[in-house]
Amino acid sequence: MERDNFKSHQTRQEIKAAHVWLMAFSVGAIVANIYYIQPLLSTIAASFRISVPQVGIVAMLTQFGAALGMLVFVPLGDTKERRRLIVCLLVAESVCLAAMASAQNFAWLALASFGIGVTAATVHIIVPFATHLASPARRGGTIGTVLGGLLFGILLARTFSGLLGAWVGWRAIYWLASGLMLALGVLIRAGLPASKPELKLSWPTLIGSTAVLIRNQPVLREATALGAIFFCGFSAFWTTLVFFLGTPPYHYGSAVAGLFGLVGAAGAICAPFIGHMADRYGARRNVLVSLIVTLVSFAVLYIFGKHMSGLIAGVVLLDIGVQSGHVSNQTRIYGLQSDARSRMNMVYMVCYFSAGALGSYAGSVLWHWFGWAGVCGLGCGLLVAGCVVYFFPGLQGRSTHANRHGELLSEYPAGPES
Questions:
Q1: Residue 296 near residue 100 (C-beta atoms within 8 A)
Q2: How far are the Cα atoms of 49, 50, 102, 368 from residue 105, in angstroms, in the given order?
Q3: Largest Cα–Cα distance in the chain?
Q4: pLDDT tens for each residue of 89-127
Q5: Which end of the chain has the lower number of beta carbons within 10 A, N or C?
């Protein structure tokens, strides 16, 4: 037994040293597929001769697809061999990206966009896998590193697609992404270890057990609600930025909209630091700071958004706030039950991307009717609601209290929280 434990310890250290950065690159490359579209929305709308709300539907379908994919595939991370599942989904992702690149009408475009979202759920099989391989004392730092790669993928996707789309057209981006997914499947197959399933349950049983987790884990409920609020406002902003930059005094196109992805990279750079802060001071305290920073960012964007310096400052604050909240929320839920991480991540991310989808569509509609004030007003309203959720945890149902790290606990917790 001691020999087996020593072997397990050695394997974990080897895996951690060799593969965390591969996982960070992987999630960044995969999640980028969801976000290539944002700087290209005006170009795609012109290509298919559709309105702003209609092209907003395409962006919304990608994120709704991601939510559905998480519901269907992510719980399987607790019951299936993860590496094989990841590779299969990458092949399917490649097919959907090729379909997007060759779309000839709105219906085809919308269906391909939805498929890209569904298969991009691979990201949230990899993240719990990284958590499983990390030691408990380094969990926050590992999550921060992997999620830093994820955010770099989100932000650099916008820069890449905006610049390349202005040069060679939007379809070329999706052809390149399709090839990258196949190459990434080879890297994952060769570079990540196989993993033994932690549970032997059918999918319906898994979903039923997930309902029990939601009922018994107030930390999961709070983190999920706050994550949804963060991402709803975040998506509303990034969906409408390209249209805002096309108005006076800017008159810019997709290339400049994409460059704002580099501005927002501050959040990705901060991700490992945020994870270590969560380990040291408590993740829930980080969430409060994130709510305040994100609320301030929308105020800055509304008041000073017509000036380039103000717009840049608002984007930096927005990305730092949202990334900090996301890393801190996930650090909290991964500390609950080690054998349920994929299912808890599924709950969190389904709500996260569903809220992002609604934010994308709501942002485009509010932009159409109220302009920039409508988009920033939506963001401020959401963050105020987030503060209510944070300061009044009793609204979630079961009575709660805080431990010495500032973490929210149930009087009858179903599992320990880090």
A1: no
A2: 10, 11, 9, 23
A3: 70
A4: 999 999 999 999 999 999 999 999 999 999 998 988 888
A5: N
